[in-house]
Amino acid sequence: MNISWGNIAKKISEIVGEENITTSLVDLITYSSDASIDSGMPNLVVWPTTPEQISKIVKLANEYHFPIIPRGAGTGLSGGAVPKYGGVILDLSRMNKILEISTQDLQVLVEAGVVADDLNQELAKHGLFFPPDPASSSAATIGGMLAENAGGIRAVKYGTTREWVLGLEVVLPTGEVLWVGRRAMKWVAGYDLVRLFIGSEGTLGIITKALLKVRPLPETALSAFAMFSSLEQAVHCVYKIIIEGLEPSKVEFLDQITLDAISKYTGTSFPPGEAAIIIELDGEKLSVEKRLERLIEIFKEEKALSYDVARTPEENMRIWQARKAALPALSSVKPTVVIEDVTVPISKLPYMVKVVQEISKKFNIPVATFGHVGDGNFHPCILLDIRNRDEVERMEKCALEIAKAAIKVGGTVSGEHGIGTLKMNMYRHEAPTELVKLLLKIKRALDPNNIMNPGKIFPKEYLEGNA
């Protein structure tokens, strides 16, 4: 069907108002990419403010067969918000109300456009917090975190976003507005549709509201920083901390390339060494102090070159601000950073870190490594200049080999960033054919016209029956 975008723009402006739609080339270019290296030009960008507006736009999309791409802040790293086949970007950032905070039930009801850090600032006034904490939390929206099942630096103790969701309001691909879930803390009545939509990357519906679980703020939190003479030593120390049951709330690993980049980017100085780990312990004060004593003993047993403890909120903040600067810091080393997201069983971490180094040397391309290794998730970052075709080819081979190595030991190509467009080829190596067929049946049943974020997770031809 030939689409008259002028006609579509007119119809959508009647739904949302002229101030909430744009066809400006500058705006379209701005929305042509997310935080990944992929891109694609949309035909329209729309800022809806109610589920009813979204419902009407979705019904219009079914009538005229144009793609709809839901978007939060565009901080995704796998191409999930990239309009590969044109269409309408639905930017939900203006749906940003915190609708209800229930301190008695430890719940909060929010719209999809609420920013994670803004939510936690408001919850802190009530002595509460929402644990999922991606590095982009200053911009990332709850809707985007739900769509990608974001993890972050607290995932080792608190898990990913899906563990903190009780219910969702979703606009289905046919336009119906549906609530799934309950206010009860547990339920097993019927299929768990809440978890079906979380991590579906906008391919099964548009999340507009979320009922989230929250926790009381811990009494105290202390962080420790330790430097090691090799990557393998640092990762082995992490493994020992986890299996001894110290229950860290954050466990981060940074290699020498990443440390050097952060130092130059932020002015932070680090002691000598090849790799560092940062640990945070939170909870009741006496428990934290006791676990900290054992943590320091482990540092000594694992032959840390040096270690330090941040005991004040200011010292603690400086450490974690340096960690969150890792990705922008690496972007100052080379023009392009391709961040991978492999996750393996924690016992395989030392092996995987070594393999990444070997693969980097094999393809003669620098790979910086950091990540939330406490749950087996880490981020090999391939550094290159995307304008150099030879470097791009080596990057692609390097990324695929890293992914295959993770799959081989029972891991996955994505622990928290999603599949999007960039990991589709890797995902083919992970997902058995029968599993992909089942996923496609679900997608076709909910979205028969394939209007919802097409070309994500699996190639478009899969939906069209040509593969």
Oligomer: single chain
Q: Specify the biggest β-sheet.
A: 7 strands, antiparallel
What's the number of domains? 5
> Compute the gyration radius: what is it?
22 Å
Rounded mean pLDDT is 95
Query: Which structural class matches the secondary elements?
Result: alpha+beta
The strand order across the widest sheet is 15-12-14-13-17-18-16
Instruction: Could you tell me the CATH topology label of the largest domain.
Output: Uridine Diphospho-n-acetylenolpyruvylglucosamine Reductase, domain 3
Q: In percent, how much strand structure appears in the residues?
A: 15-25%
Distance between the termini: 22 Å
Give the number of helices: 17
Helical content band: 25-40%
Tally of DSSP β-strands: 18
CATH class of the largest domain: Alpha Beta
Q: Which runs of at least 5 residues are low in confidence (pLDDT < 50)?
A: none
Characterize the overall form.
globular
Annotated CATH architecture of the largest domain: 2-Layer Sandwich
Task: Write up what this structure looks like.
There is one protein chain. Helix 1 packs antiparallel against helix 3, helix 8 packs antiparallel against helix 13 and helix 14 runs parallel beside helix 15. It contains 17 helices and 18 strands. The chain folds into 5 domains: 89 residues, Uridine Diphospho-n-acetylenolpyruvylglucosamine Reductase, domain 2; 122 residues, Uridine Diphospho-n-acetylenolpyruvylglucosamine Reductase, domain 3 (2-Layer Sandwich); 108 residues, Alpha-Beta Plaits (2-Layer Sandwich), CATH 3.30.70.2190; 89 residues, Alpha-Beta Plaits, CATH 3.30.70.2740; 39 residues. It has a 7-stranded antiparallel β-sheet with strand order 15-12-14-13-17-18-16, sandwiched between helices. The two termini are 22 Å apart. The radius of gyration is 22 Å and the shape is globular. Helices cover 37% and strands 19% of the residues. With 467 residues, the chain is of the alpha+beta class. Strand 8 and strand 9 form a beta hairpin. The model has no long low-confidence stretch (mean pLDDT 95).
